[in-house]
Amino acid sequence: MISVIGGWFLAHKSLKPVDELTKTAKEITAQNLSRRLPTLRVNDELGRLTEQFNDMISRLQASFVQIQQFSADASHELRTPLTIMRGEIEVALRNQRMTKQARELFMSMNDELVRLSSIVESLMILVKSDTGRLVFDMQPVALNEFIHQLFEEAQVLAEAKKIKVKLEHSEELHIKGDAARLKQLFLNLVDNAVKYTQPHGVVTLSLAKDDGNAVIMIKDNGIGIPRKDQGKIFERFYRVERSSGNVENTSGSGLGLPIAKWIAEAHNGSIEVKSKEGKGSTFTIQLPIL
Ligand SMILES: Nc1ncnc2c1ncn2[C@@H]1O[C@H](COP(=O)(O)OP(=O)(O)O)[C@@H](O)[C@H]1O
Ligand SMILES: [Mg+2]
């Protein structure tokens, strides 16, 4: 009896540190690579293993920081030449003697540059979000007013495609948030709704209250998102492949939704999609009420 109990006790005691290690190891992710496994001050197999693990995490952390810095530098360096090129094209287009052909070429180059600039801007935002370098200016936001502004802007975006924008909302709601970032979140969604909906379609914005959350929905009756893609559209650079001949616009970079998701989560909120191919999509954002 004594040896059984004694054996169990010893095994339990000697394996306890392993449990601790397992727990901490589970918690280490790309977001907290500065964490280390608890070091055991004994020079046994387990102690040495932990030390080696910690060294490995240090090396990973160093590479990670390097990659992030590289992305930050790269997107920053791309900005200036892009701005210069856009300026030069603008100047060139002022030349009245330019042939029609040359003018069209310059215009199309300008479109591509605008697109490239927006990709670079999105990349900068995501890199900054990864490194925690973007601070949110959290202030009380009156959602009623906010959604009205969004409604006006959505109408401007929808005009070219003769898409009808509707607004449904309930009572006055307040949240704590960064209005500029929230605007970015919702404009990304409205931009998508308009982009992926046929001309003369309908986009509906709505604001309602559910428990302690403000619920904002952006609904369209456009081309929808295939079920298999719905889980992936919030990943960076993910774009749904569509069969040709559809209404989809080729412009875009697959960074709109990842940014939207990041902003929603930074507000302790969530973003969800429900969609049916050929019927339309609804994006639902929940944000905690103040
Ligand atoms: N309202 C929508 N209707 C249909 N498809 C959508 C909608 N919103 C997003 N998607 C799909 O999700 C993909 C990712 O969206 P996003 O991150 O905004 O990238 P982008 O718009 O630049 O392609 C899009 O390529 C599109 O296929
Ligand atoms: Mg988009």
Quick recap:
This protein is an alpha+beta fold and 290 residues long. It has helices spanning 2-27, 45-93, 100-130, 143-159, 179-195, 227-230, 256-266; strands at residues 139-142, 164-169, 174-177, 202-210, 213-220, 270-276, 280-288. It folds into 2 domains: 1-134, Helix Hairpins (Orthogonal Bundle), CATH 1.10.287.130; 139-288, 2-Layer Sandwich (Heat Shock Protein 90), CATH 3.30.565.
Task: Describe the structure using short key phrases.
Helix Hairpins, binds adenosine-5'-diphosphate, extended, 7 helices, five-stranded mixed sheet, Heat Shock Protein 90, two-stranded antiparallel sheet, binds magnesium ion, alpha+beta, 290 residues
Question: How would you sum up this structure, described in words?
Answer:
- The chain has 290 residues and is α+β, with helices and mostly antiparallel strands.
- It has 2 domains: 134 residues, Helix Hairpins (Orthogonal Bundle); 150 residues, Heat Shock Protein 90, CATH 3.30.565.10.
- The protein is 53% helix and 16% strand.
- The chain contains 7 helices and 7 strands; from the N terminus they run αααβαββαββααββ.
- The protein has a 5-stranded mixed beta sheet, covered by helices on one side. The protein has a two-stranded antiparallel ribbon with strand order 1-3.
- β6 and β7 form a beta hairpin.
- The N and C termini lie far apart (61 Å).
- The relative contact order is 0.09.
- Bound molecules: adenosine-5'-diphosphate and magnesium ion.
- Magnesium ion binds next to α5.
